[in-house]
Amino acid sequence: MKVAEFVASKGVGGKFSKLELFEAVPDVSQADRRMRDLRPMGWKIDNYKVNPNLKPDEYLVRELGTRVDLGEAPPKTVRKNITGPKRRRILERYGHICQVCGVRAGEEFPDAPGRKAVMTIGHIIPVNRGGTNDDDNLRTECQRCGDESRDITVDPPTAQQVLAHASHRSLKDKRTLYGWMQAGRRTPSDTEAVFQEWSRLSQEERMKVMAALAEQVIKGLESD
Ligand SMILES: [Zn+2]
């Protein structure tokens, strides 16, 4: 409500900064989330990524949606949750891996240590563009990639930054990266695949493999 009230006070065409938003709403983490929650209720707030006239910390109010701050009821099916067997079926089909960024359920985000990925079911063609709840329109998406929950208050990296980071990788890493880009998702590396296999062994077998590998590591260190 507070965020809706704040954004509405700026009016259509009004601008505000992230700092102003945080000052208007005491709990910062909530402010972020609440602003995001407004989107499916018809609120349109631009940042500098979609509007080059804005400064990196600036937002422009384009449209006011449901005035929850004035007691208007939000539309009934803002978000269609997929539950039960269908949800499990989709999660299993995609191996609990986000089909957008490749993060696995329960894994930490590579660029946000300590923040673990939670898998949601997302629509390939969003519902508001006519997408259905049929299996072939559903896929696994982490809470960060899900089209309905993308955090508009966190600025995405620029193409320049990403290219700079990619350019600094070794040729081997570049090949791997290129493969993931072609596939449209991150597949586990050979090393990760071996670790996954190892995780499925019994405790006793794991110890055996670990001890044998320790020997190889020590030999490798000696010959270096
Ligand atoms: Zn993701």
As laid out across the biggest beta sheet, the strand order is: 1-3-2
Low-pLDDT residue intervals, each spanning 5 or more residues: none
Q: What is the CA-CA span between the terminal residues?
A: 63 Å
Q: Write down the domain tally.
A: 3
H and E order: HEHHEEHEEEEHHHH
Number of strands: 7
What's the tally of helices?
A: 8
What is the helical fraction, as a range of percent? Answer: 40-55%
Structural class: alpha+beta
Radius of gyration: 22 Å
So what's the overall shape?
Answer: elongated
Bound molecules: zinc ion
Largest sheet: 3 strands, antiparallel
* Mean pLDDT value: 83
Proportion of beta-strand residues: 5-15%
Characterise this structure.
This protein has about 220 residues and is an alpha+beta fold. It folds into three domains: about 1-70; about 85-140, no CATH class; about 190-224, no CATH class. The chain has helices at about 1-10, 20-25, 30-40, 85-95, 160-165, 170-185, 190-200, 205-224, and strands at about 15, 45, 60-65, 110, 110-115, 120-125, 140. Strands 1-3-2 form a three-stranded antiparallel beta sheet. Strand 4 (about 110) and strand 5 form a beta hairpin. The chain starts with a helix and ends with a helix. The mean pLDDT is about 85. Zinc ion binds next to strand 7.
Topology:
Blueprint: H1 2-10, E1 15-17, H2 18-24, H3 28-38, E2 44-46, E3 58-63, H4 84-93, E4 108-109, E5 112-116, E6 119-123, E7 138-142, H5 159-167, H6 171-183, H7 190-199, H8 203-223
Antiparallel strand pairs: 1-3, 2-3, 4-5, 6-7
This protein binds zinc ion (ZN).
